[in-house]
Structures are given as structure tokens and as C-alpha cells.
Amino acid sequence: MLLENKVALITGGNSGIGEATTKLFVEHGAKVIVFDKNVNEDCELNQNVKCIKIDINEIEDVKKEITDIISKIGRIDILFSNAGINPNIGKIEETEDHLWEEILNTNLTSSFKIIREVIPYMKIQKYGTIIGTSSISGRVWAANHSVPYGVSKTGIEAIIKSVASQYGPDGIRSNCILPGFIETPLNWVKDESVKKNIFNRIPIRRAGTPIDVAKVALFLASDLSSYVNGESIIVDGGFTI
Fold first, then answer.
1. Which of 15, 47, 76, 101 has the fewest CB neighbours in a 10 Å radius?
2. Does some domain include residue 1?
3. Residue 225: domain span
4. Which residues contact 208 (CB under 8 A, 6 or more apart)?
């Protein structure tokens, strides 16, 4: 098992990519703590999963829960900062202030803050792996793309690279995953003609699945990637070639 006896904290771990990653990490021996604002009775798969209902924008609540994890378990080996939102908005003139702020706060600012809170504990351990979820939306721009979403995901890459540079000497690796068109409740399209057009632009002719991304997260969380640091790994079936 690749993550035996490791402790992982996953934000947004109760659906989509986060849920698939939670299950895969547990299969590989990790104890997983899930932070999610939507927690249901199915979240805690077994004794190795603890689900905490929390709004990650409330940093004082986040600090309290992280402190509680350390006091009870003693360590956080892996942080997968994955929580995010993607409201269906388009052009800049259609983007109201509250939408800009909501998306940037949830996708970028909260990720920065939770990474900032976990780093001191990883420094004490002299070991840690941080994974951020960005998106190809931060690399490929189209007329109907949500500007704040793309900006927030580009910002995630900047944070991850900064962590990799600043804290590599402390034994902390930090990498980023950039999913492409992944079939999740958050961002998948329902229109069949739109789906067909998307598939025709992907060399392997299908959408990705949450497990496709989870497998990359497993690689980055494990010692298989012990010499991978500060990288952004695109998981899009070749769409951005």
C-alpha cells in the first residue's frame, strides 16, 4: 500500500474528485480527514475516514479543526486542497462583484490559508506533501469561460510553486493537478451536442472521470513522486496538446 500509516486532509472530499481521492487513499492505507460543507451519512466509509462539516472560508473554524487533528492524531502528512466552486458565469461584464469575491475566496484565498496553517506542522515533522487542484481553465481561455474561476485556478499554481520553492528544504513537496473535462457534479455539461464537440477535441475521445484525477493525486501523495516538486500535472486526455 502506497500510503500506509499516512494521515491525509482532503478539502472538498465528499464529492467528485475529492470523494474518489478519499476512497483511493483509504484503499492504500491512509487515514483521511475530509473537510466539506456538505457531509452526508455515506461520507465516513469506515473507521479510516473522518468527515467534518465545515465552510473552508471560515478560517478560524479551519484553524480549530486542524489543531484538533494534530492533538488527536499527531500529524498531517498529506494535504489535498481540492475544494472549489465553478458558478456558470461568462463574460467580464456579466461578473458581479459578489461572484468574483465568492469564487476567489473559495477557490484561492481559502486554499492559501489552509496551506499556510498546515505548513508549520509539516515543518516540525520534516515531511509533508501538498497537492493543489488547479484546472486547464487557467491555461486555456475561451470567450465563455468564467474569468474569476480561471484566475483563481492560475493563482493556485502560483501558491503551489511558491510552497515548493520555499519549503522544499523542510521536507515538504508541493505539486498541482490541472484537470481537464472531468465528469463531476460540479462542472459537467448536460447538452449532448456540446459533449460531442468536447470529445472531438480530446485525442482519447472521452471525458475524464474523478478516479483518473485521484490516481494522479495518489502518485503525488506517495513516495513514488519523491523527486517531483513544484510541478503542474495536466490530466485532460491530451486536450491542451
1. 47
2. no
3. 7-235
4. 179, 180, 181, 182, 183, 235, 236, 237
pTM of the model: 0.94
Select which of 121, 149, 167, 227 is catalytic. 149
CATH of the domain at 120: 3.40.50.720
Domain presence at residue 216: yes
Cβ of 168: how many Cβ atoms within 10 Å? 13
For residue 236, give Cα distances in angstroms to 90, 133, 201, 205.
22, 13, 11, 11
On whether the CB atoms of residues 229 and 164 are closer than 8 A, the answer is yes
Query: 2 lies in a domain?
Result: no
Can 167 be counted among the known catalytic residues?
Answer: no
What would the pLDDT profile of 142-195 be if each residue is shown by its tens digit? 656 788 999 999 999 999 999 999 999 999 999 999 999 998 765 556 667 777
Q: Which residue has the cell 491555461?
A: 139
